[in-house]
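Here is the promised in-class demo. Please do not try to memorize the tokens; focus on the logic of going from shape to residues.
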């Protein structure tokens, strides 16, 4: 049980003036009571957190990551997507092993938690090793295996077998630990055959899990799919039934036609906007104001550490809140509340979570900020600071009712050991 006393509750991004000092009770993994500051009767045995000069917000949810890629930080800068992937990243990924993946995941979880992220939606390889790391950290995640067959029949068969094993592992892990959730992850229309995409869809539907896929990241890939099928990527996948009756998290969606926009809306697809990765790889800028105008669900992601190069979602929040104003030459588009909702409650909906807001009955996935932080002063307009000025350094993080970061220190890992293992893993990868 955790009782948080006298804390500024950032639970209303639309009406920040209504955010007020409150007491909060957490029992097991849930927020069970929220009341005016001073009104909470503290149950015996509760861990008490004094919230004076502190604020509490819903933990951030990163809807597009490749978490073990923290080990790739800085290895292939300043390249366009296809060159970056084909000539640099994939050759290195051929050298991955369980230890590198474990080390990268531990480092990624630490970075995310220390910058206020409580959950992430991932696509990668060596899923068992990721599960092992995430379980030890006590972080919430939705994991998918990145399916790629490059239209090769033999590869397709082996990918389908791997996918079956991974889903089994994930379901077993979920039964043991509710923080681990499964998804299916066909990598992209340009790396998956129609058969593999349909197979992934059928599995997602059968197992009632989301699909995680890269869509319309660059003009080049769209041209490729158009030449092959006569259709744009969203049109092609829609014709295959890939978006039917499942939750789809489509990463990037940078270049989308009007007809594709209609598919996004009709099929209730969740966009994972990754502004910093799109800028760094020179892919373009997604039409977020148009998505918002059309009531398309937008969430936020960082992408992996070879294209961002960090996992600090507050940086993506600021990028999202500013870039589109510049592109449109209109400072009224993408408002603070809209972008903060993308990183919290919209993401929660996309992944079928019970978090992203601070309400009684919701999961206790919460972040406490020390208001004695230069980027949060003056201590007025804190909700605005979250979008425009905060450096992302958080004080305490609670995931599923458990304190995983306390006064800036991880409680679930030996930080020095994680740094050491990550350095070792990097050398094994590049040498
Ligand atoms: C899972 C695979 O996805 C690769 N990847 C990482 N970032 C991107 C991106 O922005 N677009 C396409 N593919 C990406 C990763 O290296 C794995 O191979
Ligand atoms: Zn990606």
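The designed amino acids, position by position:
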């Amino acid at each position: 049980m955790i009782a948080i006393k006298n804390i500024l509750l950032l639970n209303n991004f639309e009406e920040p003036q209504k955010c007020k000092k409150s007491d909060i009770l957490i029992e097991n993994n849930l927020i069970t009571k929220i009341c005016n500051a001073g009104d909470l009767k503290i149950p015996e045995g509760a861990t008490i957190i004094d919230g004076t000069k502190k604020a509490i917000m819903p933990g951030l949810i990163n809807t597009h990551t490749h978490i073990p890629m923290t080990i790739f930080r800085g290895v292939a800068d300043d390249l366009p997507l296809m060159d970056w992937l084909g000539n640099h990243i994939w050759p290195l990924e051929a050298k991955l092993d369980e230890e590198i993946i474990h080390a990268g995941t531990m480092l990624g979880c630490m970075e995310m938690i220390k910058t206020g992220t409580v959950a992430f939606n991932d696509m990668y390889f060596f899923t068992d090793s990721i599960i092992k790391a995430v379980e030890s950290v006590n972080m919430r995640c939705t994991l998918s295996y990145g399916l790629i067959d490059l239209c090769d029949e033999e590869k397709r068969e082996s990918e389908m077998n791997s996918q079956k094993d991974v889903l089994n592992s994930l379901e077993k892990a979920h039964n043991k630990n509710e923080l681990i959730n499964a998804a299916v992850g066909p990598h992209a229309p340009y790396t998956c055959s129609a058969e593999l995409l349909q197979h992934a869809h059928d599995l997602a539907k059968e197992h009632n899990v989301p699909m995680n896929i890269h869509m319309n990241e660059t003009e080049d890939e769209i041209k490729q799919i158009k030449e092959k099928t006569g259709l744009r990527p969203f049109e092609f996948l829609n014709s295959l039934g890939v978006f039917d009756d499942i939750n789809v998290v489509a990463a990037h969606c940078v270049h989308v036609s009007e007809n594709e926009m209609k598919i996004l809306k009709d099929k209730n697809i969740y966009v994972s906007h990754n502004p910093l990765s799109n800028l760094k790889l020179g892919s373009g800028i997604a039409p977020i104001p148009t998505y918002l105008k059309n009531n398309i669900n937008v969430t936020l992601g960082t992408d992996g550490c070879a294209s961002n190069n960090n996992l600090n979602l507050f940086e993506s929040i600021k990028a999202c809140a500013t870039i589109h104003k510049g592109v449109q030459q209109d400072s009224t588009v993408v408002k603070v509340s809209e972008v903060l909702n993308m990183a919290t409650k919209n993401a929660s909906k996309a992944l079928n979570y019970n978090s992203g807001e601070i309400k009684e009955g919701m999961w206790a996935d919460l972040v406490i900020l020390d208001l004695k932080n230069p980027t949060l002063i003056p201590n007025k307009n804190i909700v605005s600071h979250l979008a425009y000025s905060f450096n992302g350094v958080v004080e305490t993080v609670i995931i599923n009712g458990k304190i995983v970061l306390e006064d800036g220190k991880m409680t679930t890992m030996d930080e020095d050991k994680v740094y050491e293992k990550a350095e070792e893993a990097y050398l094994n990868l590049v040498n």
